[in-house]
Amino acid sequence: MTVPFLVVACLACGKKGPPLAPLRLAPAVIKDLQARRSAESVRVSFTAPTTNDDGSTPVDLGRVEVYALTVAKADEAPTGDEFFKQAKVVATADKVVPGEPAAVAETVETRPAPSPVRIYVAVPLSARGRRGQPSQRAVVSLAAAPAPVGALRATHDAKAITLEWLPAVPDPAGYNVYEIAAKQSAPVSGAPLNAAPLKAPKFADERVAFGVERCYAVSAVAAIEGGTIESQRSEPACITPRDTFPPSAPANLAVVPGPGAISLIWDAVSAPDLAGYLVLRGEAPGEKLAALTPAPIRETTYRDESVKPGVRYVYVVVAVDTATPSNVSAQSARVEEVAR
Questions:
Q1: Which of 100, 153, 249, 326 has a Cα at 20 to 30 A from 84?
Q2: What is the pLDDT along the chain (340 residues), one digit of tens a residue?
Q3: Could you write out the three-class secondary structure of the chain?
Q4: Maximum distance among all alpha carbons in the chain?
Q5: Distance between CA atoms of 21 and 170, rounded to whole angstroms?
Q6: HEC sequence for 37-85
């Protein structure tokens, strides 16, 4: 009874069905297309897709094509296939990494009022050229850009780098601040450091790193036709913050005499780069003070056992940081005591 079953089973295994159609995947749609215009340059940015259009991975991503079309008004632009019949590929991003930000740029020609707008759409393609769905549209105006800002100046303290500049016009719509590659016009990131256009010609960057150069450029912002246009960026201003800021002086220095020694105690100083404390001593009236500690000590107490009975001593304590050269605080309050 088992033989016929085996024969039938084998015959079923040998049957061939119709061939399956090869998978033809395309990258998923780009969802975060943005276009930012600065003077006559438009920067189009996006994040490369991480999946295929059916949600599968790894993504088959070859390149991203950016189309552009100039029209009188955004709401009069053609849609669907008609848009792509009239639009042109203005830039191609070939070296795109899934999930990573990417950007392309083009130079545009401005027009007098009434000014047209330029519409951008990004289309991802697979390695074999299969097109994904187009992104949402990003629109910029082709109106004339505002005048650039005046001289940019950078200063710093221990907490922030402060930028100040001369206004381009008496009452601009705002300003954007960019960190740029050293002494070049290319921004480190496409986004400004400020979350929204600044109203005042001043900005504080709290990312102070001593010994690290940072360069900046500023553009004026004009509000036009429901969007914004930025001026040409200012000449760059670069600064390398140096640590010239000493810790605060130790407070509440107290002295306690004892047989053959004088003990000191003081409040700890709060400083992220604190190296320690130096204890200085002199004989009253204490016009000349010398360090008792050759190197900074971390403790907030010190026992001076090198005193001579009957001599009145003057003490102060200073805080020292780890900078090179070290920054030394002001002296603590002076205390005096007679050794026993």
A1: 100
A2: 444 433 333 434 455 555 544 567 999 999 999 998 989 999 999 999 999 999 999 999 999 999 999 999 999 999 999 999 999 999 999 999 999 999 999 999 988 878 899 999 999 999 999 999 999 999 999 998 989 999 999 999 999 999 999 987 777 789 999 999 876 655 666 789 999 999 999 999 999 999 999 999 999 998 886 678 899 999 999 999 999 999 999 999 999 999 999 999 999 999 999 999 999 999 998 889 999 999 999 999 999 999 999 999 999 999 999 999 999 999 999 999 999 9
A3: CHHHHHHHHHHHHHCCCCCCCCCCCCECCCCCCEEEEECCEEEEEEECCCCECCCCCCCCCCEEEEEEEEECCHHHCCCHHHHHHHCEEEEEECCCCCCCEEEEEEECCCCCCCCCEEEEEEEEECCCCCECCCCCCEEEECCCCCCCCCCEEEEECCCCEEEEECCCCCCCCEEEEEEECCCCCCECCCCCCCCCCECCCEEEECCCCCCCCEEEEEEEEEEECCEEEECCCCCCEEECCCCCCCCCCCCCCEEEEECCEEEEECCCCCCCCEEEEEEEEEECCCCCCEECCCCCECCCEEEECCCCCCCEEEEEEEEEECCCCCCECCCCCCEEEECC
A4: 121
A5: 66
A6: EECCEEEEEEECCCCECCCCCCCCCCEEEEEEEEECCHHHCCCHHHHHH
Q: Which amino acid is at 192?
A: P
Q: For residue 32, give both structure tokens.
A: 């975060």
